[in-house]
Amino acid sequence: MDKKETRLRRARKTRAKIAELKAVRLTVFRSNCHIYAQVISGCGSRVLAAASTVEPDVRTQVGNGGNKAAAEVVGKLIAERAKAAGIEQVAFDRSGFLFHGRVKALAEAAREGGLKF
């Protein structure tokens, strides 16, 4: 198996458990240049809130979208938007990525912003 396949296998196991619980999930995707976060409904069919480093207002705050500072900005923004949508409790879906670096920075910023997971 290659690197992408093993990541997707890890993601599948996590998502199966979250789907079983019917929990609202905060999912994260990171590429080399950007990081994206979405809050997805318990049924998995609706995106309730989203934030990423591709957005123009985030781009003005951080020059490079592929670092921890950018991940923290996105974490605070997704927490703010989720709370505006009336969501406080989420399940964290790291999409098979290891919980360190940018993924961890985003998660901690979202926790500071008021999301519980």
Care to give the gist of this entry?
This is Large ribosomal subunit protein uL18. By secondary structure, this protein is of the alpha+beta class. Helices cover 45% and strands 18% of the residues.
How would you describe this protein?
Helix content is 45%, strand content 18%. The protein is of the alpha+beta class. It has one domain (3-112): Nucleotidyltransferase, domain 5. It has a four-stranded mixed sheet with strand order 3-2-1-4. It starts with a helix and ends in a 5-residue tail after the last helix. InterPro entries: Ribosomal_L18, Ribosomal_uL18_bac-type, Ribosomal_uL18_bac/plant/anim. Keywords: Ribonucleoprotein, Ribosomal protein, RNA-binding, rRNA-binding. Part of the 50S ribosomal subunit; part of the 5S rRNA/L5/L18/L25 subcomplex. Contacts the 5S and 23S rRNAs.
Structurally, the number of domains stands at 1
Mean pLDDT rating: 96
Quote the beta fraction: 15-25%
CATH topology: Nucleotidyltransferase, domain 5
Largest sheet at a glance?
4 strands, mixed
Strand element count: 4
CATH domain class name: Alpha Beta
Q: Please give the order of strands in the largest beta sheet.
A: 3-2-1-4
Shape: globular
Structural class: alpha+beta
- Gyration radius, rounded: 14 Å
Alpha-carbon distance between the termini? 31 Å
Instruction: Give the ordered list of helices and strands.
Output: HEEEHHEH
Oligomer: single chain
Could you say what the CATH architecture is?
2-Layer Sandwich
Count of individual helical segments:
4
Low-confidence stretches: none
Proportion of helical residues: 40-55%
GO molecular function: 5S rRNA binding; structural constituent of ribosome
Subunit structure: Part of the 50S ribosomal subunit; part of the 5S rRNA/L5/L18/L25 subcomplex. Contacts the 5S and 23S rRNAs.
Function: This is one of the proteins that bind and probably mediate the attachment of the 5S RNA into the large ribosomal subunit, where it forms part of the central protuberance.
Keywords: Ribonucleoprotein, Ribosomal protein, RNA-binding, rRNA-binding
